[in-house]
Amino acid sequence: MIHPYLVDTVTLDQNLGRSDLVVIDVRGKAAYAFGGHIPGAVHATWHEFSDPDATAKGLLDPNVSRLEQKIRALGISNDSDIVIYSNPFDNWGDEGRMFWMLQYLGHTKLRILDGGWVKWVGEKRRFEHGTVSPKPGEFSASPKPEFIVMKEELKQLVKRPHPETVIADARSLEEYAGKEVLGIPRPGHIPSAISVPWNTFLNPDATVKDPNIIKASLEEKDLHENQEVICYCTGGVRSAWLYFVLKLVSYQKVRNYPGSWWEWSRDFSAPVETDAKLLHKIIGREEAKPS
């Protein structure tokens, strides 16, 4: 083990087959079933745990009993050791979303595979095809409100100065500045939010950067360990990856906003800011690149 929240490929390979180990592949179903997966890995995506009645796709299903049943179907019990993986270069931080959701629901033995599928196949490790149907587990949820924030609380927070709390926008800098996105009613960001793009924390081999380097980059943005951090993106997926990274580097008070911009931008009583100067600068930089 290289970190309480990470597991390396060697260690995972040595532990495959343990009865208390559940490996979750959060890539697309076709990639899992036909492209190969880690032996014994079960499959799940964050979509399966979303609120079926909500317009905002990122919101968790409020029916905890239904969430429990879906988690048990993966073979998960409260004492299971869970390892989550994806292709870190071909998703939106989905492994972070699964990590956050399970931690919010009270599971405590969670790790992400450092380097994910990219490093696993790069090292020519064993894999299998098809699907895995495990024996159901006995997971009982115990939601932890300290890991989540909902829209109404966030709306109240931005009405006042909040130096004790940082709002971190995990989307791209263009989205933060106010780039129009299809299907999103209003562009921009939550007032006072700082831009912390989710995809800046990996090495070329898909492993997570050194924690000291990550922490230094966060502090350069005035995001400090003693503050509470609220993460959001478009649907609570990229922000859940940022949540994981912050936990990884020992930030203690971190929450994810699962509704994120899908929900916030649809509520016209929720304030929005744009940065036209920044967006113009980004667009100008993009246009200046040689074709």
Q: Could you explain how this protein is built, in words?
A:
The chain has 291 residues and is an alpha/beta fold. It has 11 helices and 9 strands. The protein has helices at 9-15, 29-34, 64-72, 94-104, 116-122, 151-157, 173-177, 211-220, 238-248, 260-264, 276-288, and strands spanning 6-7, 21-25, 42-43, 81-85, 110-113, 165-169, 194-195, 228-232, 254-256. α4 packs across α9. It has 2 domains: 6-143, Rhodanese-like domain (Oxidized Rhodanese, domain 1, 3-Layer(aba) Sandwich), CATH 3.40.250; 148-288, Oxidized Rhodanese, domain 1, CATH 3.40.250.10. α9 links the parallel β8 (228-232) and β9 (254-256). The strands form 2 sheets. Strands 1-5-4-2-3 form a 5-stranded parallel β-sheet. Strands 7-6-8-9 form a 4-stranded parallel β-sheet, with helices on one face.
